[in-house]
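Quick look at the format.
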Amino acid sequence: MAEQLTGLADDRALLGRTSTAERVSDILRSRIAEGYFPPGTRLSEDSIGGALGVSRNTLREAFRLLTHERLLVHELNRGVFVRVLTVEDVEDIYRTRGLVECAVVRGLGEPPYALEGLAAAVTAGQLAAVENDWKSLSTANIHFHRELVALAGSARTDELMRSVFAELRLAFHLVDDPRRLHEPYLARNRQILQALQAGDRGEAERLLAVYLGDSLDRVVEVYRRRMAEGGQGLG
């Protein structure tokens, strides 16, 4: 927990003088999405509030917001915990991703497209793979899809998918072989980028749909096996 709290203390400057529960929830959501708080982690009000320099009431409101987003759960007499997803949650996350991400690509209009963010995410993933840093590769992969959604130029879509991608990271925590999950999709991200660079959004959508289907199958396979084992590694 000490490492995570050190990172939160670094985020304290983001709050500025007008700290609000929304800003706190933004920080905690990002930290969950980046993998700093694994599923089942108990979030201490005193430790996190102290790291961020916010009041207990502000932090509780931020917890409430993230509970509404299904990232946290409140357990009576125990506290607030990062949520542990079910298989049904994972399936719903991917269903939502398929509906939104494929629609974004389909509706791009005429090329050229603003692909700098996608290209940067692919490069970051390649560097992480070279360094055998699979957590960073997972982060780069999520960044790729976040940038893909951003091509729609819709603040509402960005907001919707921000929580979905944070939930997705919770699912990835249960994968016992992150290299096997994430490394094959680095090449697929590059293929989607190349299709969009060529102005072929139809091919990009096809690649994306197959990608999401394969990823869902892999994550659900792991989930079912780990649940059968009694959810080892959770909490």
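Next, a different chain entirely:
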Amino acid sequence: MTRTRRSARRRTHRIRTLLGVGGIAVIVAVVALLGFRSMQTPSGSSSSPAPVTPASSGAPEPAGPPESPQRKRDGPAGEADGVVPEGTTVFDDAIPAVTELDTGFLTALREAATDAAPYGVEIRVNSGWRSPAYQEQLLREAVGKYGSEEEAARWVATPETSPHVSGDAVDIGESDAQMWLFEHGAAYGLCPVYRNEPWHYELRTEAIGSRCPPMYADPTQDPRMQS
């Protein structure tokens, strides 16, 4: 056999060998593909059930915890609780901190304010009537500011004892009005009560035609605050 024929036969043998290997590879691939498809359901989803989540089960996802009434009560106080807008006077009839004051007390304040006006003195109110919730909020803030309930009591009373809650006290805003009332307030029964709070005035009718009673050093010395 010539060299040329032997070379041709070798090339033919190599091609057949390669085709055989490729054919086997193709068959293996086809069988694997068919086997994979046979494992699937007719709908095309896996035969193994997927884990059920709240979204796939159709059940509504649980909502967050409802807001408690206590949280709502602890929200910021407003005018309805006795918060006073800047510039409020004793004549503002739309402000609960003024209109919820004791009637006789408010009358005395307005009489004094009318008489003070010609002297250029305007009696403004920094605080008047307060709701119990607002008083409690102020007390908690005072405890945080001063570090203890004992120290806070020198500045803020409890809702049960505060004359603000009962409508019997005002905090006068301007220093000139405080001074005018300090000099003339007794004629209207309006008296300062605490030395550490020169802005705090209450009605003392026994002072009319006389003088205001001695002041307490601070609210902790006031017998009304001991209950």
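The two ends are 131 Å apart (CA to CA).

See the schema section for token definitions.
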